[in-house]
UniProtKB/TrEMBL annotation:
Residues 12-125 form the Glyoxalase/fosfomycin resistance/dioxygenase domain. It holds the Pfam family Glyoxalase. This is PhnB protein. It comes from the Bacteria. InterPro entries: Glyas_Bleomycin-R_OHBP_Dase, Glyas_Fos-R_dOase_dom, PhnB-like. Gene3D superfamilies: 2,3-Dihydroxybiphenyl 1,2-Dioxygenase, domain 1 (3.10.180.10). It comes from Nocardioides marmoribigeumensis.
């Protein structure tokens, strides 16, 4: 059994988002289009189901019909201590490309490092490590 895996619904940008996340985190992207699955409820090339498999796992699809698309408020995707500090520093920087730093990754008074960044797709990440 695995842990919680977010499933994100994008407004036609699932392929771009999963490719971006693969470039940031590494791993492998697996994509299935509507056409692949015999669906006709949207453009054939839209992503019906996609996944990033690797050190960070995500599922995503393109919204079809009247499905709601990604809108996150009050939600952080936490990567606290999920990799070595140098890897987390790189992930933080890469997530911020064309995104926005909410709070720079830095040493905190309690001795740990953390920061928040919102990526170009509107996903807010909390990245940090001890020491």
């Amino acid at each position: 059994m695995t842990g919680l895996t977010p499933y994100l619904s994008f407004p036609g940008t699932a392929r771009e988002a999963l490719t971006f996340y693969r470039d940031v985190f590494g791993g492998e992207v697996v994509l299935h289009t509507l056409a692949d699955l015999g669906r006709s409820d949207g453009p054939a090339e839209s992503i019906a189901h996609g996944m990033l498999q690797g050190p960070v796992e995500l599922f995503a699809s393109d919204a079809t019909g009247d499905q709601a698309t990604l809108r996150l408020e009050g939600v952080l995707f936490s990567l606290l201590g999920t990799a070595e500090p140098d890897v987390l520093e790189r992930w933080f920087a890469d997530l911020g490309v064309d995104g926005s730093d909410v709070d720079p990754l830095q040493l905190r008074p309690w001795g740990d490092h953390d920061g928040q960044v919102t990526d170009r797709f509107g996903v807010r990440w909390l990245v940090g490590y001890q020491g």
